[in-house]
Design goal:
Elements: E1 2-4, E2 8-14, E3 21-22, H1 34-46, E4 52-63, E5 78-88, E6 101-108, H2 109-115, H3 119-133
Parallel strand pairs: 1-5
Antiparallel strand pairs: 2-3, 2-6, 4-5
């Protein structure tokens, strides 16, 4: 989840399915560690190279939506997601991967929770919002 010190969160609208908003996502390449994959995916999907990337040491298992099932092996219905935080001092320019996303939006924490299509993204946003208020 990419967010600013001021409490704004970056959400990306996927090409497919239309209207599906989430944070940067991706899969591990063979032999790749989750931390390396997270940084690679951030750069590939947003062009953002700065910021403090933190592995939140929080994983969630989720049911793969049928729309996304084609990218997984036959019979795979669940996936393990690793949560990361990329904190930025302020909003930065975003260069979208046009093969994956159609647009992006910076949103306040409450608006990001409302807009995020992914339940796991909503949970991470809430966790980061709680951490920021302490």
């Amino acid at each position: 989840m990419i967010h600013t010190d001021g409490g704004d969160f970056l959400l990306l609208e996927r090409r497919r399915p239309a209207g599906f908003w989430q944070s940067v996502t991706g899969s591990l390449e063979w032999g790749e560690h989750a931390d390396s994959a997270a940084r690679r995916e951030v750069v590939e999907e947003t062009g953002i190279k700065q910021g403090v990337l933190v592995n939140l040491q929080w994983t969630q298992v989720y049911e793969i939506l049928p729309t996304f099932g084609k990218v997984y092996a036959p019979g795979v219905t669940r996936n393990l997601e690793h949560a990361f935080s990329l904190r930025l001092a302020q909003r930065v320019p975003v260069i979208l991967s046009d093969t994956e996303h159609v647009r992006f939006e910076w949103a306040t924490g409450s608006a990001a929770v409302e807009k995020a299509s992914s339940s796991t993204n909503r949970a991470v946003i809430e966790q980061l919002r709680l951490g920021a208020s302490r």
